[in-house]
Design goal:
By secondary structure, the protein is mostly helical. The protein has 3 helices and no strands. It has a domain of 38 residues.
Length: 105
């Protein structure tokens, strides 16, 4: 058992911080998972889930659960995923028209 009051206080503070970080990281992981599911469902859902994921990353960085640069890097990657989802959907819908035009000509 700790003898100094300051050491006991430090243990209490560390426990509070650990639980707060755990809560923030859990919320972040949930937002990331929901965004990944939205990307699979389609570009419209991905576009609507992107601000929520960004907000979760910003909160986690502001609270100190993750470093700010890591949040920025993840936001850039999420934006890239959303853009890829939008372009792949557009490409897949435009390919049949191109194929049919080539077969007729």
């Amino acid at each position: 058992m700790l003898k100094r009051r300051s050491a006991m206080k430090r243990v209490r503070q560390n426990e509070k911080r650990r639980l707060r970080n755990k809560m923030n990281k859990s919320a972040l992981r949930t937002a990331m998972r929901k965004f990944a599911e939205a990307v699979k469902e389609g570009p419209e859902k991905a576009r609507s889930a992107l601000p929520t994921a960004f907000r979760a990353l910003d909160v986690a960085a502001r609270k100190g659960a993750i470093p700010k640069k890591r949040a920025d890097r993840k936001k850039a990657r999420l934006a890239l995923m959303a853009a890829k989802a939008a372009t792949s959907t557009q490409a897949s819908t435009s390919k049949p028209a191109e194929v049919s035009a080539q077969t007729q000509g």
